[in-house]
Each structure stands twice: as structure tokens, then as C-alpha cells.
């Protein structure tokens, strides 16, 4: 099945999926405050997965260029791990949105427990239609969340609207890398279908940002730093069990098994930075 033939994600259904993942993780004791892949600076880096996951958040933070007077929007905030790290490391104020009510509840609880509820607030909202005034934010981060949204250009147009002039956007996205194979590897289709993900058109990204009212600052293929190593780490048995919880997937083998993705190197990750002129 090609990407264009794939059924588009429906935000309500994505929200229900993440409600289920959150409740299952809390119940099973497999809860993780971050739901994204890791970033290793070099191929021989020995950093454990948990450290690499935080490192990817830090790679975004380095490009957000925010400080204590700034207000950041975390678009698709998960259960708040990355957003709380932004607050901790930069002093910025943060508003996080997720389409999952359970994630929002959990994120607000974590903010309270961390003593950061005065700087970080999480609420349920759909990124396709942001409930914020024009120019409300100094920066927007979207860590592995635009992958679930049915219309990237609409989301980016909303991002451009809520950013002030000069405001920054940093996001990660997934795409199908060259050389593309026909037919596409079935594990990619399974991943996209089960997690309601569509793949970005990397070649068209710059033009899409432009149409949305944003200008490119940088677009990097970070696959070599992220994807395969994450799947290898997740697939490696730990005390007789694998550890999908590190991606927040919990024990849901019906959705995904990391070993399905081993060697599937045409499944890539982009790091995109843009500015609202
Ligand atoms: C893979 S998780 C990433 C979470 C978080 N950024 C992190 O790295 O831990 C994807 C996130 O995107 C959110 N999301 C997906 N579609 C959305 C939409 N239409 N509006 C708002 N949030 C959405 C999900 O609810 C979830 O929080």
C-alpha cells in the first residue's frame, strides 16, 4: 500500500489510542514520560536508550532558542516529559496540547509533582485547529506528533498563525527514504496503520512550509542518529523480556514489535527547523 493510499489518521481515534496506551502503561508500571525515539551523537556512542531519548529533546531545545521570558507551545505533548524538560533547561513557560485526555491529565499531574505547574500547563486540543490567538507563542515544538495529523499543511498553517513574527518551529517527522523499495516493506505499512501515522514527503517539505507561511532554517535527515539504533535497543531482551515501554508502547504486541523494524532502513526521521517571518 502506498502512503497516499493509506487511510488518514482521525484525531479522535488517535486520542483514544493514546488514552489506551497511557492507562495501560500506568496500570502495568511501564509508564515512561517520553514517547519518542532516541538520538545518538555518534554511531559508536554507548549512551543507553533512556539517555538518547532525552538527547533528542535536547537537540530540539538547542534549536528552539528560548529563554526565561519565552512562551513555548508543545504541539502533541504526550505525557509531558519533553515539555517539562524544556521548562527545566530553559526557564521558558510552556503550554502543551495533546488530543488525548488521559495524557493531558497525566502531564498536569507530573508538572504538579515536579513543582513546575506554575510554568507548564497541558490541555486537550486538536493541532488542526489551535485554540490560541494569533502570535501567542515565541516557539513551537512538535516532537514526533505531526506524524499522526491528517493534514500537515493545515497544522503548519496553524503553527504559523500562533507564532509571533520571528518565532521558531522545530519538529521531527518520519518519511520514506531513498532508495524506496516497491513494494514498501510491510512493517512500515503495519506501523503506519497501527499507529495512525502518515509518512512525510521529504522532497516537498520546504515548499509546504512556505505555503504555510514559514521559512526553512534547517532540514536534516537524522535517521542514522535515531531509527535503527532505537529499534535495536528496544528489541534487545532485558532480563528475558523486551522493553517496548521505553517508547511508551507498553505491552501491546498487537500494535508493534520493535524487531519488525530491524534492517528496515528506508523508514527515516527528519529534523525540521523553521521561522515565521
Ligand atoms: C508519539 S507521541 C509524542 C509525544 C511527545 N511529543 C513525546 O515526544 O513524548 C504523539 C503525540 O501527538 C499527539 N497528537 C496526535 N495527533 C494530534 C492532534 N491532532 N492534535 C493534538 N495532538 C495530537 C498525541 O496525542 C501524542 O501526544
UniProtKB/TrEMBL annotation:
This is Methyltransferase type 11. Pfam families: Methyltransf_11. The lineage of its organism: Bacteria, Bacillati, Actinomycetota, Actinomycetes, Kitasatosporales. One of its GO terms (molecular function) is S-adenosylmethionine-dependent methyltransferase activity. The keyword Transferase applies. Residues 33-276 form the Polyketide synthase-like methyltransferase domain. It comes from the Bacteria. Keywords: Methyltransferase, S-adenosyl-L-methionine, Transferase.
Amino acid at each position: 500500500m502506498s502512503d497516499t493510499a493509506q487511510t488518514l489518521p482521525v484525531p479522535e481515534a488517535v486520542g483514544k489510542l493514546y488514552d489506551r496506551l497511557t492507562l495501560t502503561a500506568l496500570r502495568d508500571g511501564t509508564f515512561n514520560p517520553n514517547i519518542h525515539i532516541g538520538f545518538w551523537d555518534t554511531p559508536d556512542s554507548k549512551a543507553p536508550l533512556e539517555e538518547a531519548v532525552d538527547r533528542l529533546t535536547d537537540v530540539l531545545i538547542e534549536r528552539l532558542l528560548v529563554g526565561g521570558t519565552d512562551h513555548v507551545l508543545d504541539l502533541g505533548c504526550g505525557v509531558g516529559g519533553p515539555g517539562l524538560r524544556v521548562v527545566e533547561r530553559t526557564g521558558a513557560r510552556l503550554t502543551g496540547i495533546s488530543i488525548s485526555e488521559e495524557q493531558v491529565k497525566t502531564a498536569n499531574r507530573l508538572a504538579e509533582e515536579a513543582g513546575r505547574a506554575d510554568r507548564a500547563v497541558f490541555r486537550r486540543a486538536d493541532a488542526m485547529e489551535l485554540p490560541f490567538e494569533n502570535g501567542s507563542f515565541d516557539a513551537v515544538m512538535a516532537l514526533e506528533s505531526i506524524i499522526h495529523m491528517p493534514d500537515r499543511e493545515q497544522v503548519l498553517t496553524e503553527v504559523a498563525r500562533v507564532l509571533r513574527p520571528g518565532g521558531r518551529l522545530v519538529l521531527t517527522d518520519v518519511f520514506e527514504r531513498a532508495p524506496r523499495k516497491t513494494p514498501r516493506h510491510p512493517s512500515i505499512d503495519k506501523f503506519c496503520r497501527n499507529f495512525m501515522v502518515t509518512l512525510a514527503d521529504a522532497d516537498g517539505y520546504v515548499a509546504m512550509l512556505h505555503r504555510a507561511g514559514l521559512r526553512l532554517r534547517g532540514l536534516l535527515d537524522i535517521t542514522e542518529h535515531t531509527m535503527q539504533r532505537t529499534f535495536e535497543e528496544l528489541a534487545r531482551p532485558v532480563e528475558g523480556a523486551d522493553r517496548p515501554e521505553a517508547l511508551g508502547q507498553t505491552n501491546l504486541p498487537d500494535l508493534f514489535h520493535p524487531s519488525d523494524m530491524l534492517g528496515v532502513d528506508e523508514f527515516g526521521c527528519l529534523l525540521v527547523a523553521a521561522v515565521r517571518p
